[in-house]
Amino acid sequence: MTDGKKVYTDTELLELQIQRYRPRYLKDEKEEVAHIKSKIQQIKPHVTKSDVKASELRKLGNVQFQNKSDKDALILYTQSLSFAKSDEEVSVAYGNRSAALFYMGFYEECLADIDRAFRHGYPESLSAKLFKRKKDATKAYSDRKKVVKVKTYEIPQSEMNPSIQSARNCIEIQANEKYGRHIVASRDIAIGEVLAVDNPYLVELQADMSSDPFLFCCECLKHCYNVIPCLNCNEAYYCTEICRAKAFQNYHKYECLILPYVGQLFGIKFDFWLFSLKITLLAMTEEKNDETMYRSDRYKEISELEGHSNADPPEQTYVLTLLSASIFILIKEKIKIFKEFEVFEEKFKELFLYHQQVFKVNAVTIVSWHGNDKFYTSVTGLALYSLYSLFNHSCYPNTFWNTSGSTMVVRASLPIKKGEQCFISYGPYFAYDNKTERQERLQRLYRFTCECRACQENWPKVTFSPASVDCKFIKQVIKKLTENQALPPPGYILSLRKGLEVAYRILDGTS
After folding, report:
1. Phi-psi domain of 131 (left: phi exceeds 0; alpha: psi -120 through 50; beta: other)
2. Which helix (H) or strand (E) is 114 found in, with range?
3. Are 53 and 89 in contact, with CB atoms under 8 Å apart?
4. pLDDT tens digits along 130-158
5. With helix as H, strand as E and coil as C, how does 258-272 read?
């Protein structure tokens, strides 16, 4: 027991899942399928577009705006926009949201929403106020002091890897019986050097369901205060028309037909199967590409990733199979997309289950940084990177990675000699976890025993003592951090500088 709450083991959690999704009166598979079909037939989709609902949300937003709760107003206006059906309701939602954006200081976003409002036929009787806001926002935007922007790293054309789409020409892919496919240095690599700049094959938004989904793009995970909704549902939001069109063409035109049913079928949102569904839909629609280069934007590389399905307990496999069957039946009964892909129907079930296994083993959590004077981090989403998945784990890795939006940058944290393997950490790290904890977690999640130096020599956890800090060295490190703006978390340079000023004062003994 911890803080009065029962702590469940993995086995107990699996049993609870099985009890939830397998009613005791069901005795065999046929009964279960019949039960699922019966439940699906009773489901009625939620209304996805309604001017009445849009108007209600907009009026609630007006109340928050009048109370000077600009962010709450902005979220309600965005929700109103997602339900709006007529051009008039859409235009008014954009117009009202532009006001919240203006008072929050997002002048560029405010101007974009004003333009959208006029494109959708903003009522002439209200236009004078909107024209004035456009004039004020334009002036405020031009008068604002220049904002420091963190440079996002791009691999120079002369340093592009000829064999790996998203890598520099300092690494290569090798394979052997012990390590499988893995990443090796093709030359000596210095600390801080970039090894790869990788974009994900797919992302799934994982933001706080109370507000954050209305502040992030579902296609690229960009933090955006003036997102635009899907034209057909109110479940997905995008930073631009380009991202919306790309998502719709690739998978969302099918996904958005299913999402209104999902909550009623399961009661909660299951990110792992939504992720798996997207990959499966992409596999159905992606054009064949036989290029020999290892690519991050192609399904072939995803199809070769390890899922460790043979090592999963029967109970876990059962839960995933039952969920897969439910989604398959839902798609077939309600959406009928297999008329378009008749040959793919049987293969769909196999791939859908496989993609759930791949997701569990290979998905990466994307963390965003927020704030100005005070900062915090939050989980933005999950992403699947084919190249990242080829890096093996070490509890004392020689590389580290960070993300800007959903773009991952991998850098060397230690000198790497030519021919040495490049390692990342899958989470366990010798400084924070003891050997037993690390090995248990790696065996449970990834089915292997780590043999890195930290594990072989059983290094102790790191203990920090302020008295042991070399202040002169720390100052040198801080100076280097400020000189190289690519190292801090993207979008956070202004807050970082304030933090550094405090750090300097502490080190100088003046604070």
Report:
1. alpha
2. helix 107-119
3. no
4. 999 999 999 998 887 655 455 567 899 99
5. HHHHHHHHHCCCCHH
